[in-house]
Inverse folding.
């Protein structure tokens, strides 16, 4: 038999055949290891858990275009490459447009978006019914649904009219060229828009005109689109119109003024002034927030309604990061990569996440350290008692020729064996402990970290070894002569 | 040829002279008994010869080496290589079986060899009980295991302190027979005893009194 085998045999026999005392040492190590493994598991899992928890409160980063411009999906996609794929939990594009519900004379802020991403960045959205999946399906905020009495399965018709600002973008005079077809709009009675479109002849004079004043009071301003005499005045006039060029419609001074303003700011027609579409209500959205006052369409439905192509107002992102510095660095690199974009943190969410995390982690550290010290004291005391109990045996071993190093090796071996066994026990129990805590506190389970087992076992062995140092010193100092004294 | 040469050895505990200028010599292969009243310094002398203690003064030559001057590490080595110890209390490692207890001695000496250990137990008539723990053995059996353990590494010198003190007649005879065998094989034996019968089995008896050699008795009746 080899020496090593005998060594192991002696150690295991000592532990297995002298159970009671060693069981106490084993138990203290196992308890210590359990708490260590449990807390470390929670420690490493908490950021993930907390992230998931905080993500429930919405996106933690947004991507905007600079100075009120719009964003394109391509630019956004390019910018998103700055974030590692596995850290990007979701990125939701939004295009906000006001759409009119002509039948009720109401208009609503409507978001064109990607519903699969919405579910990732806004997990707190609660939808009665379902998210839109097909064309011409709409998600209606609860507030709107309540005020209109909308229910699932109903159909609503939405109209898109470009806003005055949208119509008037740019410098009109650039477009007043001979042969041009122009359109424009301006605010009329009660800020409701008036739309005009004209064509210019070879000399740049108005050759035809049509006016949409359907949002004005029908019996006054509303006549602007149909009153032949009124319309005829514009033919042959040159843009811009000046005071006295045309007479105002009786009883509709404001509408008439709006028509002139619309003409003077008219630009080459790039899109239909107005389009409408009907949508199936497939979901009612409850959030407890302002989203309940919005309508939500798919981006493609929105684009076919507005005629826009690839325009976004904001991209909301949910990004996983260890702390706000890491998050900020993602934002910075996105901002730097494309100067037309700005990425910003949604401050409230990220900051609270970091402070809560660092406090929790400090606490875990402290508790772990205290537990480890207590374990060490307990194991050390037990081993001390063990050495006293085994004085005669140690003396005997020395009398039989054991060197000090053999004695050290044997006790250290027993300590390490205890540490290893306690560590394995602790790693398993600790995982169970962490699992219970996680399920009860966070309501979600944790995955077993394979690294946890070797780490816990190693730490337990180190703790056990350190705890054995003093008892070993005492063991080594035992005098072999006491055996002959036959006490 | 002398294996052991004790010259003017004293061991002083404070006021007490446990050994007082003792000179003894033991030849290679000799069987010596040491007698004397309680407190006369027998165990003190055995401790010194057994390399577990050092004299206050004097020389102890074991195989020509002065062990009174060696470091405790060197003493451990000498004890391991040359000496087999048997005690009055049957000191066994209580969580190891009989054969494992014998192997402990091999383990510190060289290599554990179960076959050899079983053979040694066979010599003391305990081969059948090899797998028993000390708690399952009688006092006599335990002492026989200790004898097996002492002889397993073929020491030059066997030191036995009251080996039969706690044994009944039958077991005492078994142990004495083992000593006779060892003696025939050429092992030097030093046996401390209170029992005149055990002393008579030896070739020579040294009597200690108050830490001094009071007298020496040559056993005329010694049968080889
Ligand atoms: N470590 C010690 N410290 C102080 N005195 C000691 C020590 N060891 C032994 N003595 C004393 O030395 C004397 C001799 O002791 P020793 O053990 O050698 O006696 P012994 O002859 O073996 O007696 P016994 O037959 O009772 O075993 C005794 O008086 C004892 O009290
Ligand atoms: Mg004695």
């Amino acid at each position: 038999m080899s020496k090593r085998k005998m060594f192991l045999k002696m150690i295991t026999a000592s532990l297995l055949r002298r159970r009671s005392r060693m069981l106490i040492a084993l138990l203290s190590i196992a308890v210590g290891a359990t708490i260590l493994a449990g807390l470390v598991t929670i420690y490493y899992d908490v950021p993930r858990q907390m992230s998931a928890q905080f993500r429930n409160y919405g996106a933690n980063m947004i991507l905007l275009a600079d100075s009120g411009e719009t964003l394109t999906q391509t630019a956004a996609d390019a910018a998103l490459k700055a974030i590692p794929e596995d850290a990007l939990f979701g990125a939701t594009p939004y295009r906000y447009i006001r759409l009119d519900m002509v039948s009720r004379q109401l208009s609503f802020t409507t978001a064109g978006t990607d519903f699969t991403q919405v579910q990732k960045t806004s997990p707190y959205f609660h939808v009665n019914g379902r998210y839109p999946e097909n064309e011409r399906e709409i998600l209606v905020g609860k507030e709107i649904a309540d005020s209109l009495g909308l229910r699932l399965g109903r159909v609503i018709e939405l109209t898109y009219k470009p806003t005055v600002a949208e119509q008037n973008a740019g410098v009109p005079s650039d477009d007043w060229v001979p042969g041009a077809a122009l359109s424009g709009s301006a605010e009329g009675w009660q800020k409701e828009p008036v739309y005009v479109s004209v064509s210019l002849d070879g000399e740049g004079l108005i050759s035809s005109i049509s006016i949409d004043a359907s949002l004005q009071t029908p019996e006054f301003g509303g006549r602007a689109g149909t009153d032949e005499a009124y319309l005829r005045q514009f033919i042959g006039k040159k843009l811009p119109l000046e005071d006295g060029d045309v007479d105002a419609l009786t009883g509709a001074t404001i509408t008439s003024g709006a028509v002139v303003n619309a003409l003077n700011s008219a630009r080459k027609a790039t899109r239909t002034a107005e389009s409408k579409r009907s949508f199936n209500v497939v979901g009612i959205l409850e959030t407890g927030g302002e989203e309940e006052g919005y309508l939500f369409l798919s981006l493609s439905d929105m684009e076919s309604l507005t005629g826009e192509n690839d325009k976004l107002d904001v991209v909301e992102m949910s990004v996983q990061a260890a702390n706000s510095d890491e998050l900020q660095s993602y934002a910075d690199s996105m901002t730097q990569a494309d100067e037309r974009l700005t990425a910003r943190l949604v401050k409230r969410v990220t900051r609270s996440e970091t402070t809560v995390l660092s406090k929790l982690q400090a606490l875990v550290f402290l508790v772990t350290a205290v537990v480890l010290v207590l374990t060490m004291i307990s194991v050390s005391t037990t081993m001390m008692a063990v050495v006293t109990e085994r004085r005669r045996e140690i003396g005997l071993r020395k009398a039989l020729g054991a060197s000090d190093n053999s004695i050290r090796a044997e006790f250290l071996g027993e300590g390490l064996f205890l540490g290893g066994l306690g560590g394995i026990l602790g790693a398993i129990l600790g995982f169970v402990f962490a699992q219970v805590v996680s399920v009860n506190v966070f309501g979600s389970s944790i995955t077993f970290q394979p690294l946890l087992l070797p780490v816990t076992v190693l730490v337990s062995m180190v703790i056990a070894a350190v705890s054995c140092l003093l008892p070993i010193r005492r063991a080594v100092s035992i005098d072999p002569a006491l055996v002959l004294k036959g006490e | 040829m002398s294996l052991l040469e004790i010259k003017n050895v004293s061991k002083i505990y404070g006021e007490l002279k446990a050994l007082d200028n003792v000179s003894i010599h033991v030849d290679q292969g000799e069987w010596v008994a040491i007698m004397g009243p309680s407190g006369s310094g027998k165990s003190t002398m055995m401790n010194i010869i057994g390399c577990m203690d050092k004299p206050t003064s004097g020389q102890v030559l074991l195989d020509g080496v002065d062990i009174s001057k060696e470091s405790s590490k060197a003493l451990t080595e000498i004890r391991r290589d040359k000496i087999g110890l048997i005690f009055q209390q049957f000191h066994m490692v209580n969580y190891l079986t009989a054969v494992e207890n014998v192997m402990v001695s091999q383990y510190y000496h060289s290599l554990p060899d179960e076959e050899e250990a079983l053979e040694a137990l066979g010599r003391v008539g305990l081969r059948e009980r090899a797998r028993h723990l000390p708690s399952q053995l009688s006092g006599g059996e335990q002492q026989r295991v200790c004898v097996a353990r002492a002889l397993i590494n073929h020491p030059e010198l066997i030191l036995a302190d009251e080996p039969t003190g706690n044994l009944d007649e039958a077991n005492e005879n078994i142990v004495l027979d083992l000593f006779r065998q060892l003696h025939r094989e050429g092992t030097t034996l030093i046996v401390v005893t209170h029992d005149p019968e055990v002393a008579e089995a030896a070739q020579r008896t040294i009597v200690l009194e108050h830490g001094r050699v009071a007298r020496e008795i040559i056993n005329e009746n010694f049968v080889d």
About this structure: The interface with chain A takes residues 43, 46-47, 50, 52-53, 73, 76-77, 79-81, 85, 87-89, 91-96, 100, 103-105, 107-109, 111-114, 133, 149, 161-162 of chain B (CB under 8 Å). The pocket of magnesium ion (ligand 2) is lined by residues B 42-43 (CB under 6 Å). The mean pLDDT of chain B is 90.
